[in-house]
Amino acid sequence: MKEKMKAYRFPLILLISIIIGSIIGLVFGEDATAIKPLGDLFINLLFMIVIPLVFFTISSAIASMNSMKRLGKIMGSMMGVFVVTGIIAAVFMLVATVIFQPGQGVDIPLETPESTEEMTLSEQLVNTFTVSDFVDLFSRQNMLALIIFSVLVGISTALTGEKSAGFSKFLTSGSEVFMKLVQLVMYYAPIGLGAYFAALIGEFGADLIGDYAKAVIVYYPVAVLYFAIGFTLYAFIAGGKLGVVLFWKNILSPAATSLGTGSSIASLPVNLQAAKRIGVPKDVRETILPLGATIHMDGSCLSAMLKIAFVFGVFNMDFSGWDTFFTAIGICLLSGIVMSGIPGGGFMGEMMIISLYGLPMEALPIISAIGVVVDPPATMVNVTGDTVSSMLVTRQIEGKDWINQAEVN
Q1: What separation, in Å, do the N-terminal and C-terminal C-alpha atoms of the chain show?
Q2: What is the pLDDT of residue 390?
C-alpha cells in the first residue's frame, strides 16, 4: 500500500497545487495574474530544456536501433495510430455537437477581420521541414525541422557503424543528462503550475461564461470524457488491464503540466518521463512523443469539429448530412495531424473551414476565439494522446506481451 501511495504522491501534490491555484484565481480574479511570473519561470525552464532534449532523445534512440527496418515499422505504425485516433476524436465531438448544437441561439456581433497575408502551402512546407541556417534549429518555432535533423543524425550514426561508437555514446549520455535535468525542474512544478492556474483562471474566467459559454459547456466535458473513456480504451487495447493501470498511474503529471502551460512542446519533457515509467521502449517513446507533440493533436481534432458546428449555428446554417459530416471529419484530420505542424497552421485550418463551407470572413474571429477558450483541455488531450499512442505502437511492434516485460523491467 505504501509503495502505491508513493507512486501517486507527486501527481497528488500537483493536483492539490492546481486546485489551490484555481481557487486563488477565482477569489482574486485578474489580481491573481500578479503571481504569473512564478508560472512563467516554470514554463520557460521547460522550453529551455526541450530543444536539446528533443535532439538527444531522438538521435540517440535511432542511433541505437538494431536496423532501419524497425524505424520504418515504428513510423508506419505511428502514422496509422495518429490517423485512426484523429478520426475517432472527430467523430466523438461530431456526435456531441449534433446532440447539443453549441452555436444554436448564440448572438455574437460580427466583426470584419483585418486583411491577411496570402500564404502558399509550398512555402509553408519548406519553412516547416527545413531552415536556412543551422542556428535556426535552436528554436521551438522550427521544431519539425529539428526533429528531421535529429532523425537524420541518428540514421547517419547507425549507418556509420563502429566508427560512430563514441558519438553514439555521447548521444545516449546527452539523453540521460537532460532527462535527469527534467526531474530536477519538476521539483518546482507544484509552485509553477499553481501560479499558472491562478493566473489562467483569473484572466479568462469571465470569457468562459460569456458568449462562448455554450461552446465551453460542450467542449470541456467532451474532452474530459474522451480523455477518461477513450484513452482508457486505448490503454486497454495496448496492454490490457495492466496497461490501463500503468497509464493512469503515470499520466497525471503530463496532463497537469499541459493544462497549466497550454503547450504540447513544454509538456514533452514530462511526457517522456511518463512514457518511460509506463514501460514504452526507448526508441518508440523518443521517436513518437517529439513527433506527436508537433503533428498529432486529438484535442485539435475535437476543437476543429466544435468550431465548425459552432459557426454553423451562429450563421443559422444546417449542420447535417453526410457530405457536411465527412467534410468536417476531413478538416479535423488536416487540422490535427497535417496543419498542426506547420507554422501558422492553426490560422490555415480556420481559413480552410471558412473557404470550404463558403462562410463570410466575419466568421474568422469567432472561430479563433473558440480556440482560445478551449485551449487548456485541448492541449491536455493532445499531450496525453501522444502517450497512449506510443503504447499502441509498442503493442503493434513488440506484441501483446510487451506490457508484462515492461512491468518486470
Answers
A1: 20
A2: 95
Q: Residue 243 has which C-alpha cell? A: 496497461
| DSSP-assigned letter for residue 139 | S
What is the spatial distance between Cα 310 and Cα 89, in angstroms, rounded to a whole number? Answer: 17
Which residues does 371 contact at the CB level (< 8 Å), separation at least 6? Answer: 303, 307, 346, 350, 378
Residue with cell 467542449: 219
Band (pLDDT 50/70/90 cuts) for residue 179 is confident
Mean pLDDT of 54-71: 85
Does 50 score more than 50 pLDDT?
yes
Average of per-residue pLDDT across 56-72: 85
| Residue in the block written with cell 461564461 | 209
Q: Which three cell numbers stand for residue 23?
A: 481557487
Which pTM was predicted? 0.77
Burial class (CB in 10 A: 0-12, 13-18, 19+), 181: middle
Residues 306-320 pLDDT 10s:
999 988 888 888 888
Phi, psi of 51 (to 5 degrees): -65, -55
- Is the per-residue pLDDT at 115 higher than 60? no
Residue 251 near residue 12, CB atoms below 8 Å: no
Angle (CA) 148-150-154 rounded to 5° is: 115
86, 175 Cβ separation under 8 angstroms:
no
Is 217 buried (19+), middle (13-18) or exposed (0-12) by CB count in 10 A?
middle
Which of 52, 283, 270 lies closest to 149, judged by CA? Answer: 52
Whether 261 and 32 have beta carbons less than 8 Å apart is answered as no
